[in-house]
Amino acid sequence: MPQAADDDRLTTARIPFDNTYARLPARFFVRISPTPVRRPRLVRVNAPLASHLGVDPAWLASVEGVEMLAGNRVPGNTQPIATAYAGHQFGGFVPQLGDGRAILLGEVVARDGARRDIQLKGAGRTPYSRGGDGRAALGPVLREYLVSEAMAALGIPTTRALAAVTTGEQVMREDLLLGAVFTRVAASHIRVGTFQFFASRDDLEGIRLLADHVIARHYPQAAGAEERHRALLEAVVRAQAQLIAKWLLVGFIHGVMNTDNMSISGETIDYGPCAFMDEYDPKTVYSAIDRGGRYAYANQPAIGQWNLTRLAECLLPLLADDEDDAVEQAQAALAAYAPAFEQAYQTGLRRKLGFFTDAEGDPVLARDLLKTMAANAADFTLTFRRLSEAAAGPEGDAAVGSLFKDASAYDEWALRWRQRLQQEPGDPAARRLAMRLVNPAYIPRNHRVEAMIRAAVDHEDFRPFEELLAVLSHPFDDQPAFTRYTEPPQHHERILQTFCGT
Ligand code: AMP
Ligand code: MG
Q1: What percent of the chain has pLDDT above 70?
Q2: Which of 43, 339, 367, 393 is most buried, most CB within 10 Å of its CB?
Q3: Quick one: 364 and 393 in the same domain?
Q4: Beta pairing, strands 176-186 & 160-172
Q5: Same domain for 170 and 229?
Q6: Which residues fall inside 5 Å of ion ligand 2, going by CB?
Q7: In this structure, which ligand is nearest to the CA of 101?
């Protein structure tokens, strides 16, 4: 396969790469450069993120920068790699996955002192491509760009979008589509599946090296613990419990929570068939390939536990020499997951309902609202947003009630809510403000995302992408010129299925 030749390397070091993963043993990855593309064109650079990473956004958008983003030239001061991993996909174990179309350019230490990966997704074939072409199509690249940035603005741990370019080449999917390369930024690209790769090969030394790399990089507090690998497992369990609670609190459905798509750092990763739900229904599934609803909205906490159990199995040999002892330790660490999730979820719900204090009946009150929403096809995002306004006084109730098929079902619940609010300190205006900061007005609604993709892909019109991105970067603000983006789809606009788009 053609690769960026050494003499095509960018000689001036525009990005201060410092690659720790590439210093791990050779079996962790393969060294490979991106495959050049015909005609790179910049779609967008994320300037604030670039600056945060210590990369000059103007350079990134220059001819030279775009050549790097397209994979046509590789910085001279880095060692690009494709990483090895395995994973359970829809419950079935695949011992060899790996970056089939993603190439890690390297790591940089951002302004906040945290190390970040910079990875090109869609950069050409690698030894892990299996049957795939190593490429990405423009539509899924724009979806990942938009949704990951929306998640970041919502305050949810996530990989980020540094840039997108088109390649001037076509990729063969169900149709011929314009190709694109997405530049992803992540705390790391280490997954539960990375541990599974070594565990399934009985490579104990690999597991240990990986675990210690992860501790140093993501969970340094575990390094000082008496049992550092147990502390690592506990930290990952906590991070995932909190992450998945955050997803539920904004109506996010990941769609493909395979173990290779669960980041060890606790960031949301892999935006394939993901979507936000409009009407609240815990059974909601968008992904066309998820026929059994394994990754349905309300199944996500349980799947998190399932995936973490797979991680714990990999770590068993590090937890104790005696197998029974190791299993006991793993079970104790995993047992913290459900309470950690419940705590994060209930705390989040309480804030969404405007409670600063903690009362015994709160979980039931929250559950009953959700039940009423489900029975009345109420829009998840709008219900909580309008509830924030209703916190200022009952004159706001009509707007919430109008979201329910039967407004009186909301009114009945609202009586109980107002009674509970009477026990709360703080004035209604402060409550309204606090609620508006946790109940977004703007989420990437699926029909808007699809329309944005159609405009870009079918008409080369990137204005909807730019506009939606700008609106979603301030999800908690009222933006009077863009109230249309707060609205759920009309019946005929609904998008009920999403596709991986690989
Ligand atoms: P995903 O469904 O995106 O999580 O990908 C699952 C696996 O398939 C990973 O190992 C990917 O690297 C690989 N993969 C997905 N799409 C492609 C593609 N177009 N070419 C090569 N490998 C791919
Ligand atoms: Mg993946």
Answers
A1: 98
A2: 43
A3: yes
A4: antiparallel
A5: no
A6: 261, 270
A7: 1
Paired strand residues for 89: 92
Same domain? 470 vs 373: yes
Judge if 213 and 247 occupy the same domain. Answer: yes
* Statement to judge: residues 144 and 53 lie in one domain: yes
CA distances to 149, 232, 258, 449 from 220, rounded to whole Å, are 27, 9, 26, 38
Judged by its nearest atom, the ligand closest to the C-alpha of residue 191 is 2
With respect to residue 42, please indicate whether it lies within any of the assigned structural domains: yes
CB 353 within 8 A of CB 387: yes
Which two three-digit tokens encode residue 23? 């210093």
Single-letter code of the amino acid located at 129: S
Cα 106 to chain centroid distance, Å, stands at: 20
Amino acid letter, residue 50: A
pTM score, whole prediction: 0.97
The residue whose C-alpha atom lies closest to atom 16 belonging to ligand 1 is: 502
Is there a contact between 413 and 369 (Cβ–Cβ < 8 Å)?
yes
**Which residues have C-beta atoms less than 6 Å from ligand 1?**
97-101, 128-129, 132-135, 256, 260-261, 270, 272, 500, 502
Examine the domain organization and report whether 32 and 18 are in the same domain.
yes
Residue-level pLDDT at 365: 98
Long-range (24+ apart) CB contacts under 8 A made by 221-227 are 227/319, 227/329
Structural domain for 400, as ranges: 354-502
The CA distance from 414 to 75, in Å, is 59
Task: Please tell me the distance from the alpha carbon of residue 219 to that of residue 190, in angstroms, as a whole number.
Answer: 13
Nearest CA to ligand 1 atom 17: 132
Judge whether 279 lies within some domain. Answer: yes
What's the structural domain count of the chain?
3
